[in-house]
Amino acid sequence: MSTVKKNAKTGGFFGGIVLLVIGVLILWNNEGRTVQMQSVINEAMKNYTDVASTTVDSKYEGKLIATTGNLDLSGSNPVQDAKFGIKVTGAKLERVVEMYEWVEDCTTDEDNNKNCTYNKEWTSDLVDSSEFTKSGYTNPTSFKYQGEAFYASNVKVGAFDLPQRLLESLSYDKELNNEKITEQYKNTVEGFKVVDGYITNAENITDAKIGDLRISYRYASDGEVSMLGVQKGSTLTAFTGKKGKSIFTIKRGSYTGKEILNGMTKANNTMKWLLRLLGFILVMGGIGSLFAPLQLIASKVPVLGGIVSFSTSLISTVLGLAISLVVIAIAWFRFRPVLSIILLAIVVGLLVFLKLQKGKNPMSSLKSGEEVKDESKTDSESLKK
Predict the structure, then answer these.
(1) C-alpha span between 363 and 77 (Å, rounded)
(2) What is the pLDDT of residues 232-289, one digit of tens each?
(3) Is residue 156 part of a domain?
(4) Count of structural domains, the chain
(5) Residues 238-246: contacts with CB within 8 Å, 24+ apart?
(6) Could you tell me if 26 and 82 lie in one domain?
(7) What is the overall mean pLDDT for the chain?
């Protein structure tokens, strides 16, 4: 058992290095992405023009525009999945295929012992059971039928032709219900029938077997949408900023260019902080794992083990934050030097805090007390002489 724990702690050390590197890369790339994205948003904010979608005005050719209009499907045939005979009047249709599979869920306890449980779940992703920790839980190696998207042709937004890229990014807003699927599906695929809104090959969908499939559909209906892009003829293309980042978007509802861009700014900031948090957690976890050998040694002594565990946790948090801020500061230095200097000042403060905490370490106090005691003993002996 001790050998297992030793190997786990060693693995934790090298795993810590991997986590540390990944965390730093995420933080670095995130800052560059954030700056580039905000830069192109700012450029777009200064250059866009709101225009009506009822006509295509040649004076906006090559310029960034924002326009709102209804999806016009009058020139399109119903979009369909010919394999299963399903069709709808919409901009696009998606076949969603799920398979009943084993899914592994593993946790690691404080001694780095790995504990895994296995559950059966419907999932649209292929789960590779050959990578499972335990054997005896086997999934199929492929889907008999794949999920797929089907697109309508000649879709317009007012007088503008909807470009394929925006059609692909248009959100789905409706699901095909059991009644519609039952009405359209004619048992054209052997072994598949309609049950509870799904086309399935399961004998009993409420008690499915590993490898059973169930198929559902969702689609993008017509309605009002808003687009932002560069006018090119009767359609739109992406707007590319000076730093190489592009903007090209569509969303349901009526929005001005300013509202679209403000929404993109909020989304960019949210992503920035989520990735910063992820990067910090990985860096902190990586540093914590580097202390695994020390924790293993200290755990042999109950009281010392607790002290070391607390100390390493504190050090991991402070150093993790300090390293994260240094990475962020360096990444931003070329873009916002003032902010970088502020962040570096915070790092210095954290390091000072860490040094002060080290001075308060119980072991240091104990050692100082022993030194004072030894000095007092020496003085007493000298007086006797």
Answers:
(1) 79
(2) 999 999 999 988 899 999 999 999 999 999 999 999 999 999 999 999 999 988 887 7
(3) yes
(4) 2
(5) 238/165, 239/40, 239/44, 239/64, 240/40, 241/36, 241/39, 241/40, 241/43, 241/44, 242/39, 242/40, 242/43, 243/35, 243/36, 243/39, 243/40, 244/36, 245/36, 245/37, 245/39, 245/40, 246/40
(6) no
(7) 85
